[in-house]
Amino acid sequence: MHTIDEIVADSPVFEGLTHDQLELIAGCAQNVGFKQGERLFREGDPADTFYLVRKGRVSLSTHAPARGAVVIETLDPGEIVGWSWLFPPYVWHFDARAVDDVRAVAFDGACLRGKCEADHDLGYDLMGRFASVMIDRLRHTRLRLLDVYGHGSTS
Amino acid sequence: MTPVPYRVVSRAPETADTSTLLLEPLGASIVPRPGQFNMLYAFGVGEVPISTSAGPDIGGSLGHTIRDVGAVSHALVRTEPGAVIGVRGPYGTTWPLEEARGCDLVIVAGGIGLAPLRPAVYHALAHRDEFASVCVLVGARTPADLLFVRELEDWRGRFDVELDVTVDNAGEDWHGRVGVVTQLIPRAPFDPENTVALVCGPEVMMTFTARALLARGVPKERIAISMERNMQCGLGHCGHCQLGPVLICRDGPVFWYDAMERLMEVRGL
Amino acid sequence: MHEEALLTHPPPAVIDLDGLHVLVGVLRDRGYCVVGPTRKDGAIVYEEIVSADELPAGWTEVQEAATYRLERREDEARFGYPVGPHSWKSWLLPARVRLWQARRDDGGRTEFVEEAPPERPFAFLGVRSCDLHAIAIQDRVFLEGAYVDRDYAARRDGAFLVAVNCGVPGGTCFCASMGTGPRAESGFDLALTELVGSEHRFLVETGSDRGAEVLADLMGDPATAEDVDAALRVTHEAIALMGRHVESFDLRDLLARNIEHPRFAEAAQRCLSCGNCTLVCPTCFCTSVDDVNVLEDGAAERWRRWDSCYSVDYSHIHGGSVRPSSRARYRQWLTHKFGTWIDQFGTSGCVGCGRCITWCPVGIDVTEELTAIRAADGEVDHAHN
User: pTM of the prediction?
Assistant: First the structure.
């Protein structure tokens, strides 16, 4: 059974932060759990939290008229869910739901934003880490835009 | 070269536009190796090159998984069991399963690319001790576009192969991964320095997959891809399948990525 | 080297015009379908002939970029011209040929019946050195790969080749640059060099046992040293009369490293993608198949026809054509002919016959294109790549 400190310290997204910085971040965190099917957050709601998945799978989806819910991404243990807490208007753009039973560390985004304001070095560092996560997602999303398997595609 | 007659034993729909035909020879028997293709003839309509997705080399019937994209493939996927089609082959180069002995075998399939790779998976499972580890990564557009679902579930249940499946998008009834197949590569369990990768799918997918494998440290000359061009004769005589210095039907369709990388970058080559 | 070859066994002979008539007769008597040059529709083409009378005596060709016409000579030379729009591929790889028929009975049993080869073997009279090389190049494609083309092999195996050494290269000829002529050195059964002087005679060299047998029936005289010298002079002087030159050194690497050269887009602005060059080129071998239903019940046929990499759907795969632009297609043809052909088959694809220059409606000249690429080696077309 790992403490939050240990989980945060072991997580690749926070690798390289100083002991003090890690303590600061862990101070904004708590363990949470979601039952299968439960929603982590809803599209349009204020985004003040982000999650580090520890167990289970989280889906990001949106609702398209006549299409129903469309899952656009799933996130597995070790992956970060949510960056809307970092940028105005601090609002979720997708629904997040537990695909199976999920355990995660929830980080208080509002609290962290405050700490980043006070410590710009920490703020710059966190920005860089989240930018990297977003760039990764953007690359993969662009690949999906190509619709490589669609009509006219071939093997 | 004339086709030899084969009878369609069964026709199994895989997705809305793709079916697998299992065939039995009425005369000479054709035994392709994993990665090779046959020219399939629909009487009076024409011929198309289709990779083998099942072969008598590992027991069982000759099989081809065909996507309905044109006049000939349309005729083929609508062929009733009991009817006769023509088959010529086998042609082309094979997946480098010999070269992969002793290595981690990583198989990455995108869309219908899983069909030409299926014989390679069967070979790996039938000769499991020849490989260190076997990892199969499968991507498709949506869950409804996944091929060989029952087999995927069988492979998933085995202890000696790692299988991971992802789709580009899905409805909420899908509880698997949603994301592009390249996202499976950074965390897949294989040692890049001792890996041979077999990659098959649309050319764009193969390019991005190769880059993801390279980013993990798999050497270019250990990544095998299956190329496609307009192949009409399969014999190296009609000229259509040229790509720069190679003829896909004769020097391919399986190539090492280091030989293809630069050619794939030239638009309209 | 060739001087020595001329003097080896069996030694060369000399025949006169009567002897030429006898040659055609002997070949026909031996069952050959004799194909030779003859005047038709304003050009000198290769058709079946029954007599040496049908040769274009006293005619020559004037060839330049996008230009071809016949003109009268001052003598009655039978072979006083280079090559016209036809090449021997019209006979070895016909423009249209049935490959097989398929019959299906009510029970679904299907039978494939291969087409029988032509009944009579061919004797080609008047094969220029460039075309001898072209035949050898196509032999590599159809006979020396992993698969042998049955129809080509049947036509080729029985073919009797009578070469003719060129004395009158055309305005677009550049065999000397490609190392494929003007002198025929091998690959023939007999080789003629026409000597028009006070007497009208032909030096005849033997290239095979079959050739020697036929020569024996011609009852020629042994060639004198003067005859041999005169024959050598014909081709030697022809070298200086070549209409075009091109630096052929290292073309494969030159083209491979200039795959995005601006010259391709420039040529594409002129190129009509008409495919004439591929039709007249003696080495272009691309074919396509047509699968047809025959009206009578249960029958289908496969026909093979010439195809051209200039057609848009030549490179079609589902989704579209790989080479949709004229630039891409011009580049394909030029780089394949002079570059990647070597990777694929071990020799250049060009024999310097000049037909593509003559028959291009806008006069695109491959020697000019290659020279321009070499002159600007390394330039990259940023607009189109």
Answer: 0.91
